[in-house]
Please model this.
Amino acid sequence: MKNFTLLFLYAAFFCSIPVAMYSQVVNVEKLRQDNTSGLSGKVEFNFTARKTTVQSLDWRNQTFLQWDNEKWSVLLLNEINFNRVDGTNYVDDGFQHLRISRHLNDVFTAEAYGQNQYDPVRNIAQRRLLGAGVRVKLSNSNYFGFSTLFENELLTDETLNQDFRLSSYLQLKLQLSKTIKFLTTTYLQPNLSKFSDIKISSQSTLSFHITDKFAFTNSFTAIYDSFPATGIPSFIYNFRNGIKYLF
Model:
């Protein structure tokens, strides 16, 4: 019953905002590991080159490092994505994120972070931000966070946006039944001087476990920017079905 109550709260939270979303908001929570000690992380490289009727090149690098002790956590993320088909770049984005956390007690954590980001395909030459706030543990693996950040965003047409924003997120990891798991994270970043200027991002995954090792997954990502760069849609979404094998 508790899980369904949290799911209802998430639905109320999600439905109280505009139903639309934009990929400038980086989901840090999907990579963060709780209840760890010492150094942990992963480094992943993917490269694909193919030629059929067209020539394509794909490159992806993701680096995740986290260090923890009883009082402190340090999180470092780096991600680069690139896709070119016949000389045209369809994906060319990346970000670097550093977050330092001070665990005040079992519920509250103070955090400070900095981020650099680029996505020229979506007309973002460079987006830098600095922020600080608090992360609150609602229950096991469920968190709410809020902070204030300063954003410096340079578009490819040389437009410069400098704003202070609120940033809040809700993360839920729910075991709805013995075979069904639900994971979701939603971010809201309204402009402090103009609340109609808002960036929203939501990522949700529903997993149906057939056995202990096999599961069907349904993932939905939606992103919205009320004032996107010229020529870029306000609402972008992605729906994906898959099969997962655990070992």
Summary: The radius of gyration is 19 Å. Confidence is low (pLDDT under 50) at residues 4-23. The CA atoms of residues 47 and 59 lie 5 Å apart.
